[in-house]
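Task: sequence design from structure.
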């Protein structure tokens, strides 16, 4: 069985610099100058350092950013069955980024990075890669519930294909079994795939809480890292790459003087670059969980690594704006069957702001989920569709009644109230440092991920997505990190 490696376990076992003494020595080792400093927290950081450490002679430091206010991360899944789908998103998602003023971000542009990152068990093809570091596999051990869901989807007017490639250009209206990042009989973590080889290639890892990007004459020259009562600066000769998750990325930029000028002045942060879009455009995918009583034939089914589901549209959306995940009793957490209805293309927007100039203070986050009529309507349509599929005769011997907490919501007004009350964010936030033209006040970075108005500073990961992809965003985030490394190595900047 593959050794399962969590982020913290890797940082210990791989000899990465821990929180105290060795971290300090690691910073001193960079006094002669690192070439690139990467601030971690988003999957993009791992893909970026993997690619950067393959450049001959390049000295790379990854800051393992651990702000005091952030809750401890949930344990990584230890079984393939619990892994999320590994799905890139529909090609229209990337074409829309390009059409929003980001040349080079259409589907055909980003496809080479997707292929370069993966080792797909089906082998290389026009759309898939076979020589990359991350193992991506199909799950081939469905049980009766998974097969019944596919047949039930057909009765709802969808196509079903247990071998459908959700990482092809189109993922719409096929019910199938998701691919996952797995190797042998266990999860293939991003840390094992990208961070471990980067460490072997010479990556230095420094642990602590980032307090700011150090700016000199409008240029990013390093990163200040705090460990308790002490702070040190990791210098960067070639550039700084912020690959923190979206809320944290916005906070770091604002603490560094990059953001809405009025807000920065109000909290006492000197303004380096007035970019109104920093911290705006925050959005997160939203999910409503529906559950049905599992009948006896569903309770004795064998274990399986499969997660069945599909991507579809609520009304006339393009790309698909709904994801449906079908859960067996093990995944549903009891003698239940489930369908998670996920709004993957929300239109509601929130923001992130500093509570104060104190780097240790948690930022003020307003997700504002389901504040648009379109989002509520989409989830209502998703609930209706999930119920229609669940009522299919193919599931009759396996499925009992819908649970009381949702079953009574049938009229439109009751359904609207249900989704507003029951929807939960998926922790798939995006958009706080969005890509766009310099003339767009809401944009933070250009098409090469360089921060508008600042030299030597880039942002990568889900934070730069103008609109989140219509799938779990980790795969697309890895692609963005890979491309960020290319831009940094090329030293290019698009100033549209």
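Answer:
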């Amino acid at each position: 069985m593959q050794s399962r490696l969590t982020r913290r376990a890797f940082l210990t076992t791989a000899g990465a610099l821990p929180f105290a003494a060795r971290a300090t020595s690691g910073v001193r080792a960079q006094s002669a100058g690192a070439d690139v400093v990467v601030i971690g927290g988003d999957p993009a950081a791992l893909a970026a350092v993997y690619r950067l450490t393959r450049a001959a002679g390049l000295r790379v430091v990854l800051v393992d950013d651990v702000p005091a206010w952030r809750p401890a991360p949930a344990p990584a899944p230890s079984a393939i069955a619990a892994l999320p789908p590994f799905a890139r998103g529909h090609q229209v998602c990337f074409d829309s980024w390009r059409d929003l003023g980001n040349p080079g971000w259409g589907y055909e542009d980003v496809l080479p990075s997707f292929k370069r990152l993966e080792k797909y068990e089906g082998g290389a093809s026009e759309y898939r890669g076979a020589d990359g570091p991350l193992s991506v596999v199909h799950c081939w051990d469905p049980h009766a519930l998974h097969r019944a869901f596919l047949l039930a989807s057909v009765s709802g007017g969808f196509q079903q294909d247990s071998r459908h490639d959700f990482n092809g250009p189109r993922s719409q209206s096929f019910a199938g079994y998701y691919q996952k990042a797995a190797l042998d009989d266990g999860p293939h973590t991003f840390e094992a795939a990208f961070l471990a080889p980067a460490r072997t290639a010479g990556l230095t890892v420094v642990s602590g809480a980032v307090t700011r990007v150090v700016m000199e004459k409008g240029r990013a020259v390093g990163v200040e890292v705090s460990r308790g009562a002490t702070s040190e600066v990791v210098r960067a000769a070639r550039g700084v790459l912020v690959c923190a998750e979206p809320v944290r990325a916005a906070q770091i930029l604002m603490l560094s003087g990059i953001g809405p000028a009025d807000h920065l002045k109000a909290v006492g942060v000197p303004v380096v670059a007035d970019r109104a879009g920093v911290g705006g455009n925050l959005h997160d995918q939203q999910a409503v969980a529906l559950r049905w009583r599992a009948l006896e034939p569903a309770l004795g089914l064998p274990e399986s690594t499969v997660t069945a589901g599909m991507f579809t549209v609520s009304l006339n959306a393009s790309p698909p704006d709904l994801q449906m995940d079908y859960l067996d009793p093990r995944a549903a957490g009891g003698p239940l069957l489930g369908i998670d209805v996920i709004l993957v293309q929300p239109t509601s927007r929130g923001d992130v702001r500093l509570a104060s100039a104190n780097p240790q203070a948690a930022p003020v986050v307003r997700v504002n989920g389901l504040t648009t009529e379109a989002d509520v309507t989409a989830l209502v349509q998703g609930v209706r569709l999930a119920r229609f599929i669940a009522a299919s005769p193919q599931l009759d011997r396996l499925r009992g009644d819908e649970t009381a907490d949702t079953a009574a919501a049938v009229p439109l007004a009751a359904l609207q109230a249900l989704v507003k009350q029951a929807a939960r964010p998926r922790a798939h936030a995006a958009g706080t440092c969005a890509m766009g033209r310099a003339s767009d006040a809401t944009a933070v970075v250009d098409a090469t991920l360089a921060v508008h108005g600042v030299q030597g500073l880039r942002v990568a990961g889900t934070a730069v997505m103008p609109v989140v992809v219509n799938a779990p965003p980790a795969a697309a985030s890895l692609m963005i990190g890979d491309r960020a490394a290319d831009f940094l190595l090329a030293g290019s900047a698009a100033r549209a």
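The chain has two domains: 7-75+188-281+429-490, 140-177+283-348+370-422.
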